[in-house]
Amino acid sequence: MNIRRLIAVWSGRLIKTACQITGKQGVTLAGKVALSIYPPILKELASEVRKDIFIVCGTNGKTTTNNLLADFIASSGNKVVCNRTGSNMLNGVASAFVLSAGLNGHLNADYACIEIDEASTVRVLPHFKPDYMILTNLFRDQLDRYGEIDITMDLLSRAMKMAPDMKLLVNGDDSLSTYLAMDNSNPYTAYGISEQVFQEENSREIREGRFCKRCGEKMEYHFYHYSQLGDYYCPKCGFKRPIPEFDASHIDLSDGLAFDVKGRHIKANYRGFYNIYNILAVFGAASMAGISTENFNKVLGDYTPQFGRNEIFHIHDTKVMLNLAKNPAGFNQNIGAVMTDPSEKDIIILINDNSQDGTDVSWLWDVDFDRLKDANAASITVSGIRCQDMRLRLKYVDIPSHLEPDIEKAIESKINSGTKNLYVLVNYTGLYSTHNILKKMEGTK
Predict the structure, then answer these.
(1) What pTM value is reported for the model?
(2) d(CA 78, CA 113)
(3) Pairing of strands 264-268, 311-315
(4) What tens digit of pLDDT does each residue of 234-262 get?
(5) For residues 442 and 229, what is the distance between their CA atoms, to the nearest angstrom?
(6) Contact yes or no for 351/389 (Cβ under 8 A)
(7) CB neighbours (10 Å) of residue 360?
(8) How many Å apart are CA 85 and CA 309, to the nearest integer?
(9) Mean pLDDT of 131-136
(10) Cβ neighbours for 122, distance < 8 A, ≥ 6 positions apart
């Protein structure tokens, strides 16, 4: 055994323990230190995975899809490596493998489910070649970090070329994801929703795939689901939505989510139409890898959302739902999920502009906040570094809001004198601290 590899693994585990004691996350630091001590460590540990390595990419839905897939695979007794906290750049990916290794420096794992930031794929894939990539969708996200969406697509295309044998599972309802798959030589399979679910969709919603990537012609749609997702076709060159192998039908949103796929009835107690895509991706990936889906509904029922993905807390007699909303498409879907709850509610919106969030918050003007007028909200509170920007955005659609920059004080106020039904929507850097605040409050109930 290479002594540097052992030291790298032990150092990573020690850093994780120290961070837990001091109340810090520390996941990426463990990977960074391990890679600096022994650069080949990620490549060597990944090579010890006995069966398949899945990676999950895309703008929205990565963490939910990745963690649910890991839970499903593990439910059959498999050992799975997974970066559950959403640390999805190179150091975070390395941490997932290092912290799963034993004290002997070796990995005992059947599968790996790894979420990877789209821009980081070209840094991660030189270390190992995945068997499968799930591509959830491609939306505009953090322009000051990623640039225009074409840059993200170019990076993903380069990553696909690094692993030519990697099988793709793509959201066929997204013209951008579909084009990317068709434009590369990797074998691909599509999942999607072929039936029209909503009779009308807000025409003001931003649609990234308005123009055909092949010929530049304006795309036409038989119907939309949301954003650019739907049944699209190019009237000029013939580029169109593929027939999905994993196709959701008989969709019912009246009591959680229910639909049929491949002759199996799927039911989950989640809110948000977008979660159908996440569940479809997991079902499709497991099926492609030859993993039995017999206990799929049981795993859905047992699955506990993590770190602000429909995460529910119970504090005294108040139910609190925490959700990440970091770009226009995701925020609009979060608003839609809030509106499926007809009961009276309080809403807190936290907006930060730290480097990980993207310092440009102009995307707030692309979110359809006017829909909150019909959300039966007793109160809306704005919080975070850019709470004034959020307050101004709401003012422009004639929605009054309370200002409380301190998120802990904002939550306490609604716990003490609210409707007992609280929704907290946060962007990226507010997620971890808000999660910890809610966990602390829940523990003192």
Answers:
(1) 0.89
(2) 12
(3) unpaired
(4) 999 999 999 999 999 999 998 889 999 99
(5) 37
(6) yes
(7) 12
(8) 11
(9) 98
(10) 155, 158, 159, 162
HSE (CB half, 13 Å, CA atoms) of 274? Answer: 27
List the structure tokens of 220.
Answer: 């036409």
Residue pLDDT, tens place only, 76-106:
999 999 999 888 999 999 999 999 999 999 9
H-helix or E-strand containing 441?
A: helix 428-443
Question: What is the helix (H) or strand (E) element at residue 350, kind and residue range?
Answer: strand 345-350
3-state secondary structure of 153: helix
Dist. CA 263–CA 286, nearest whole Å: 15
**In terms of Cα–Cα distance, which of 322, 334, 223, 321 is closest to 274?**
334
Cα–chain-centroid distance for residue 290?
24
Least confident of 106-110, 345-349, 393-397, 427-431: 427-431
Least confident of 47-51, 208-212, 376-380: 208-212
Instruction: Report the SS3 class of residue 106.
Output: coil
Cα dist. 279→100, 109, 266, 285 in Å? Answer: 26, 24, 9, 10
Provide the pLDDT for residue 309. 77
Question: What is the average pLDDT across 188-207?
Answer: 81
CA-CA distance, 230 to 193, in Å (whole number)?
A: 8
Q: Length of the chain in residues, anyone?
A: 445
Integer Cα distance of 311 and 320 in angstroms: 8
Q: What is the mean pLDDT of the chain?
A: 92
pLDDT exceeds cutoff 80 at 24? no
Please state the rounded mean pLDDT for residues 6-12.
95
Q: What does the DSSP assignment read for 2-64?
A: -HHHHHHHHHHHHHHHHHHHHT---HHHHHHHHHHH-TTHHHHHHTT-SS-EEEEESSSSHHH
